[in-house]
Amino acid sequence: MKIRKMTAWFLAAAMAASVAFAGAPAQAADYSSLEAVELIGADSSSKGAVAQQFGELITAKVAEITGGQLTVDYHTNAELGGDADILRQVQSGDIGFCINQTAPLVAFIPEVAVFDLPMVFAKYDGATIDNVLNNPESEFYQKLSAAYEAQGFHLLGFLQNATYRLTTSNKELAALEDFKGLQIRTMENANHMAFWTAIGAEPTPLAWPEVYFALQSGTIAAQENAADTCAGANFQEVQKFLSCTNHILYLNQICIGKATWDSLDPAYQEALNQAVAEAAEEIKPKLAEIDTENKKFLTDGGMTLTEYAPEFYDSILALDGVQKLYADIDEQVGGLGTILQAELAGE
Questions:
Q1: For the range 25-29, what are the long-range contacts, defined as Cβ-Cβ under 8 Å and sequence gap of 24 or more?
Q2: Alpha-carbon distance 30 to 271, whole Å?
Q3: CB hemisphere CA count around 344 (13 angstroms)
Q4: Between 114 and which of 8, 29, 31, 333 could a Cys-Cys bridge form, CB atoms 3.0 to 4.6 Å apart?
């Protein structure tokens, strides 16, 4: 396990942590008697991305909280490999913790496919979602956390603020019937593709470097991504409409290897929880700002923004094909989908 130990030096008291993330400490701790430890942290995001900002803020905070007794050597921009490579190294203990989106975790923790449930979060605000995803008292959090543990990981939490993957298209998508026959580029994810098929669209996996030119030539008519990705690709140049389909929540997870976590002194565990919690509270407003700014960039570039009433999502979720997909995913994840829906609804 790659935890680096250094000469101990003077302490700092841990501050009270936000309750937004599970397990954050309630009182100050003394770290001066503990042997100093350095963890390796990593992500595969592009420079300046939210994951990088999150990781670097955690790095600064954990050093501040512990007076430099627990530190992080943080690597971004895939310096230590792609998502799968990083996750394998976290699982084996060669890397301490990582931050990434949930899709790559499914290959390691099948239950994480619960986040493939289409539009399950679409009608909820960030605080409501957080109360399920990051609440140690929620059944969903407890069961998903146990799934992480079973595969050699320890869940530290999720970062989100109710921003989503959206749909860009060259025709207006005002109502459900407008999706019929829509040739849309999607991720090569069986659950995502099944959703688009269920609402009448024609999903087409396509390598990312080819997407802009396929949209420009009309080979495909639409694609789906978060607003920052759409803006970064300048899709306003080749697409006329930006539709808030809100089909997949835009979130990052942070986890640490179980063996690494178990090797940490409880005071260091609390300090890391506190650093994650405080960093998340600082980053979350930026998520909404980034989303708003990029939507404005796209609409200023000529795109028309389409937003939907809750009834739009209800009509899609009531479709037989979508209901079947929900049942299939729920079976894949051992009933976590049912628990998630109930807790989001406050049941």
A1: 25/270, 25/271, 25/273, 25/274, 29/267, 29/270, 29/271
A2: 11
A3: 17
A4: 333
Phi and psi at 346, nearest 5°, equal: 75, 25
Closest C-alpha among 121, 119, 104 to residue 161: 121
Angle CA 330–336–337, to nearest 5? 50
Closest CA to 239 of 180, 185, 160, 284: 185
Whole-structure pTM over 0.85, yes or no?
yes
Q: What is the mean pLDDT of each run of 10 residues along the chain (347 residues)?
A: 37 35 53 96 88 96 97 96 96 97 94 97 96 96 98 98 96 96 92 96 92 96 94 95 97 97 98 97 93 96 97 95 97 97 95
- Of residues 162, 139, 145, the one with CA closest to residue 347: 139
CA dist 192 → 103, 112, 203, 234, 324 (Å)? 11, 14, 9, 23, 13
Block residue for tokens 């390691």: 108
Place of tokens 């600082």: 282
φ/ψ bin of 89: left (φ > 0), alpha (ψ from -120 to 50), beta (otherwise)? alpha
Can you tell me whether residue 219 is helix, strand or coil? Answer: coil
E strand or H helix at 242:
strand 241-243
CA 94 to chain centre: 23
